[in-house]
Amino acid sequence: MERKSCKIIHVHFLTTHKNFYFGSVAAIFKKFSEEEIGYSKEYISHALVEDGNHLLSKKVLIIRSRLIR
Q: In which domain of life is the source organism classified (predicted)?
């Protein structure tokens, strides 16, 4: 049986401990501003090119992963 997967971007806010899950980097910025995230859309896109890559700032932890269905 073939398992399907899709990219997922997990955004964890360090101060509030809230978690959000997105299907793309662009989707993050439909909900949050660059000031809230602490990174630009372009920076995140270049940093998270492979599954397992992550970014950590004083505001957020952002992780690129796979959702297996």
A: Bacteria
Q: Which two tokens stand for residue 21?
A: 């899950």
Q: Which tens digit of pLDDT belongs to each residue from 31-55?
A: 999 999 999 999 999 999 999 999 9
CB within 8 Å of 34: residues ≥ 6 apart: 40, 41
Inter-residue contact 64 to 52 (CB < 8 Å): yes
The residue with greater pLDDT, 4 or 21, is 21
Cβ burial of 11 (10 Å; 0-12, 13-18, 19+) is buried
Specify the pLDDT at position 9.
Answer: 98
* Domain spans, the chain: 6-67
